[in-house]
Design goal:
Blueprint: H1 15-27, H2 48-54, H3 58-73, H4 83-96, H5 102-110, H6 115-123, H7 131-144, H8 150-185, H9 193-204
Helix pairs in contact: 1-3, 4-5, 4-7, 4-8, 6-9, 7-8
Length: 224
């Protein structure tokens, strides 16, 4: 598995890009254990497994990181999607593509995704989803298979507005790339369905804490 390269191995003209990626990852709180992200990252691997691998090419890593921050901040501005809508993509697409990401499941519930909706997706009980949850989930699945219909697009625009629909759909594409890169670089299989279901039930039962809902939400003023 590729690891984050040492800073002193980075070309001088790419140090700023390298530092920006590491600093952003540190700003999300990964240096200390927390609900959803219990394993603290050591200082020399602060970028984490995914961005650590991407930092073999600091410029690509930095641009992907910047775009990710823009997507994370859309819930802070009018006319786009909510943080719960964004994390719903992580939950549904992650499961669809074989990469359950517990951190995003936890973050999703922290920003308003229903635990019961997570259970419905992971267990395949889509009839238990509320109408809007299912509409969005079916759009995500259709995107993943390249089969979004005109009717689905029109429904999404009616729900999120033109700009919100474009930004939300673009994030599905961004996350599709991210998941496939994670699977290629670090062979991460994510959490098993039964593990996710057990943890969500613990949240419902009050036996497992959720992360700070603001911990990984950058201010729109810090992205451009």
């Amino acid at each position: 598995m590729m690891r984050q390269p040492p800073r002193d191995s980075v070309a001088a003209d790419e140090l700023a890009a390298y530092d920006n990626v590491v600093a952003r990852q540190a700003s999300y709180g990964y240096a200390t254990g927390q609900p959803g992200y219990e394993k603290a990252r050591p200082a020399d691997q602060m970028a984490g497994p995914y961005f650590g691998a991407l930092l073999q090419s600091p410029l690509i890593a930095a641009h992907i990181s910047d775009l990710g921050a823009i997507y994370r901040s859309r819930g802070e501005v009018p006319g786009s999607y909510s943080h719960a809508d964004r994390e719903w993509i992580d939950i549904v697409l992650g499961h669809e593509m074989g990469l359950n990401m517990w951190g995003h499941v936890a973050d999703g519930m922290a920003v308003g995704v229903r635990p019961q909706a997570v259970i419905a997706v992971v267990s395949g009980s889509w009839d238990d989803l509320e109408p809007r949850e299912r509409m969005l989930a079916e759009f995500i699945r259709a995107f993943a298979t390249g089969k979004v219909t005109d009717e689905q697009w029109a429904t999404l625009v009616e729900d999120l507005g033109q700009r919100g629909a474009v930004e939300w759909t673009a994030f599905i594409g961004h996350l599709t790339m991210t998941i496939r890169l994670i699977q290629a670089f670090i062979h991460n299989e994510g959490e098993a369905d039964d593990v996710v279901l057990a943890r969500v039930q613990e949240v419902i039962d009050g036996k497992r804490d959720l992360p700070d809902s603001r911990a990984r939400v950058p201010s729109p003023t810090t992205v451009s």
